[in-house]
Amino acid sequence: MSLAATGSKDATRATALVYSTYGRPTEVLKVLKHTLEPPTEDSVQVQFLASPINPADINQIEGVYPLKPPMTTGLYASSASTSSDERPPVAVGGNEGVAVVTKVGPKAGHVFKVGDWVVMGSAGLGTWRSHGNFRAKDLTKVRTVEKMNEGGDSSDLDVIQLATLTVNPCTAYRMLRDFRTLSPGDFIIQNGANSGVGEAVIQLAKPLGVKTINIIRNRPGHEEVAERLKSLGATHILTDDQLGKLETKELVKSWVQKGEVKLGFNCVGGKPTTEMARLLSKNGHLITYGAMSRQPLILPASLQIFKNVHASGFWLSAWNEQHSSEERQEMIDRVLESMKQGQFAEVNCTRNQWSIVSADVSALEGRLLEAIKKATASGFGKQVFVME
Amino acid sequence: MSLAATGSKDATRATALVYSTYGRPTEVLKVLKHTLEPPTEDSVQVQFLASPINPADINQIEGVYPLKPPMTTGLYASSASTSSDERPPVAVGGNEGVAVVTKVGPKAGHVFKVGDWVVMGSAGLGTWRSHGNFRAKDLTKVRTVEKMNEGGDSSDLDVIQLATLTVNPCTAYRMLRDFRTLSPGDFIIQNGANSGVGEAVIQLAKPLGVKTINIIRNRPGHEEVAERLKSLGATHILTDDQLGKLETKELVKSWVQKGEVKLGFNCVGGKPTTEMARLLSKNGHLITYGAMSRQPLILPASLQIFKNVHASGFWLSAWNEQHSSEERQEMIDRVLESMKQGQFAEVNCTRNQWSIVSADVSALEGRLLEAIKKATASGFGKQVFVME
């Protein structure tokens, strides 16, 4: 069953994938057909172009993620004919996406023009929707309409790359930048190297002249994964079963020579991460941004006391919250610039069409929930909604 | 059997507790009776007043500590009559102690005067001896002869407090200072709170207005330990069996109110330290300086990612190596000032007399090794050599 609400005749007809209670995404998500009033004051209205389904989005709907967007009745137009029983407070799913500005509120004209492309400046805004009204300060430009008219900036980056820009590449960018000053010839080491963040790390490190030691899992097909990472610019590859061995320590030493392994990026946890931490140089810094193994980080005291290895976490949502929209814009500009220099590879994903003019809400809902189902199962790869 | 060496008639007759191979301290340590030539150039000669036996000293002799002082034949005077077979290269045990300057080399007079009291500016100098020659830059003043003639500075600190100043109180001082800016009303939490460092933390935090949450072991006599820590200025006490319980979390919350637990000091490791880390406030920093449980540090990824808890190690020997003698002097001055303000409690220890004019070397050796034996066994408390 789909929810429905209607609005005034100036309003935009829109669809959104929403939930009113936490639970299994395929069970609690519904398409809400609704109308959007024109943006007021310093807000803009956007039409989404593409929005990915990320693991954190799923955890958020399950209610197990620390960021919980407030549920509101704001999506229902005041003139809605449905009764309040049919209008439960909802949150729109999704945290990441790229959109085009379609209407500009009276005080937002100095920031955005119709036609500008934007990404989300913070988490919890809800990106699984055809259209939405957002405060200008919550959005960050990725292409200006002027530049696009001149032939386009970021012209070698497609809509999927832009839609998946604000989580993985921005996490990689900040981790490379905020903990140590990296110079050409320095090394970083990372596990989960073929994750979205891992691939972004490789591609952002390359134009900096920073060398990468990349740990992947030794399972069938790992040679192809290694080839792909090398094609992105990975300097060295290790499989997880090589960790903890004396010859691996010697191998890394031969790669690093007089350089330093200044940073380690960890999205795995458990014993293999301990072994990765041992490969850091003196004064190295291990940054944890995930825990795929669901195991904690285990650090020998000697590594911390005598080798002065530090351990910190990184969460982009917290960074975004603590920094201004100008700082976020600067980050996006620089990531885009690095992406262009690194010639970022195409994002491997399945495109799931979201017909924004679709009249058949239940057919749309069926298609969107199919994409959610694939995103929560394994073996289907990354799923992205593409709004057309 | 004791080793012996003799020198010129200007030389000072000295004894030192030395080892020529790594092993069990009571088996490898010997008294070396020897002579010291007058100090040359920018060196001074000192007579030790008191030198403690620390756990790291024992580990060093066992060969399991990362700092290994080089073994040399420097202690044997050139005129030694013994054959080279009887003069194996040796290192003098001990890393901490207080000494009085007895002779000043030609270029050291602008730094030290005869009668000044000094402590060691770095590790590995060998403090278990009656006399020694040291470079001026390796020593730090704790009392000047001028001030002593005026009635004494640091006059409320006794020789044992000064002898045990450079390891525990200096570690506590740096950990309180180097990781977060602490203001009155801020909290720190620590385990092993009745260790030498733990007690120093309490006493150095007090004059800063910094409140301390102190974790001790729940074993017979823990009430007396708690009373002692409270008499030193401890704000709150927890026993380790309270860790990980919901009511303890609530209790700490009620203590801290709107304050912040900015720092945690860990000398234990393992699961109890994980539970202590959970009591840190957002952005808190856990400093590991020991691992009494011989367990590693275990940190949940969520604590690092979402709560932004950092983990670092601290090792005073590395700090001393990386900082100038002026910076070490400043630290000692400030620690002494804080100690006086906090009215540091007497150090609980057993004083083991080291007769510096003793002619009976084997009797001396017996007494010194008895102290070493007590220091390596449990239940005898802290052992200090007092040279008289």
TrEMBL record, chains A, B:
Q: What class of enzyme is it?
A: oxidoreductase
Which terms are listed as keywords in the entry? Answer: Fatty acid biosynthesis, Fatty acid metabolism, Lipid biosynthesis, Lipid metabolism, Mitochondrion, NADP, Oxidoreductase, Transit peptide
List, in alphabetical order, the Gene Ontology terms for molecular function in this entry: enoyl-[acyl-carrier-protein] reductase (NADPH) activity
Transit peptide found in the keyword field: yes
The record's subcellular location field reads: Mitochondrion
Q: Which InterPro entries match?
A: ADH-like_C (IPR013149), ER (IPR020843), GroES-like_sf (IPR011032), Mito_Enoyl-ACP_Reductase (IPR051034), NAD(P)-bd_dom_sf (IPR036291)
Gene Ontology biological-process annotations: fatty acid biosynthetic process
Grouped into one coarse class, the protein's main location is mitochondrion
Q: Which Pfam families match?
A: ADH_zinc_N (PF00107)
What GO cellular-component annotations does this UniProt entry give? mitochondrion
Reaction(s) catalysed by this chain's protein:
a 2,3-saturated acyl-[ACP] + NADP(+) = a (2E)-enoyl-[ACP] + NADPH + H(+)
The cross-references to Gene3D superfamilies, in alphabetical order and at most eight, read: Medium-chain alcohol dehydrogenases, catalytic domain, NAD(P)-binding Rossmann-like Domain
Per the UniProt entry, the signal peptide is none
Q: Boundaries of each Enoyl reductase (ER) domain copy? A: 24-385
Known EC number: 1.3.1.104
Which family is it part of? Belongs to the zinc-containing alcohol dehydrogenase family. Quinone oxidoreductase subfamily.
Q: Which PANTHER family match?
A: ENOYL-[ACYL-CARRIER-PROTEIN] REDUCTASE, MITOCHONDRIAL (PTHR43981)
Q: What is this protein called?
A: enoyl-[acyl-carrier-protein] reductase
**Species of provenance:** Mortierella alpina
| Name of the encoding gene | ETR1
